[in-house]
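B., you asked whether I could sanity-check this one before it goes into the benchmark set. Here's the sequence:
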Amino acid sequence: MKTPVVLCAIPARYGSTRLPGKPLIEIKGLPLVMWAYNRAVDSGAYSSVCVATDDQRIYDTVKRHGGNAEMTAAHHQSGTDRIWEVAQRIPCDYIVNLQGDEPDVPAAFLQDFSAHLADIDNNSLLTSLTYATIIEASNPHAVKAVVNAKGEALYFSRSRIPFDRGVQGPVYKHTGIYGFTRAGLKKFCGLPRGELEMRESLEQLRALEHGMRVVCRVSDYRAHGIDTPEDLAAFEKLLVTTDR
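And here's what the prediction gave me:
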């Protein structure tokens, strides 16, 4: 049986309202985007890894540090659209969309996620959830999810869901990693934006609105995305305390 070819693509853009030039911010002499890139490569979970960007500065930086990068058009509305452009150039069976602002993704998490790509078909996608803290459950920046008995998403929201009325249960927080078959990614990117997607500003709702399955893996991995100067300072402090 043929071993599936898995491409890990990391979308990266220069603009960021809260942290301009975020992918190129250096931490211990290494640009942020390369932290995620190196984690993906070192995990051994992928046939190939590349950064997808429309910015020449990011492209040149990745290349200078020995990484693979692909230039894309500037008109894409999302990182997923950017990745689909790249996936049309690189032969692959599956594509994993990995966030470039999460510098500390464990190899075991990436390996487990890729091992479950076989759970999806051309009408579904794979993503990951973890358990929300009390603060995250009410924080609109932390996206919550409700799943069915099969572990498939019923809904994603910036509001706290579900509402606990008499019965307490876990609140799931969405982790922004996605897996697609090549045909599944093509289908997703060809769908029109849905009303719920625009209202919640959550791209994954497009899949649910158009009848695609969203298969969810629950893990203990808690993503530490760097979106603000405070996030950056906290990660740098963590590096000092853990001597990494």
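One thing to flag: The chain is about 30% helix and 25% strand. Otherwise nothing jumped out at me.
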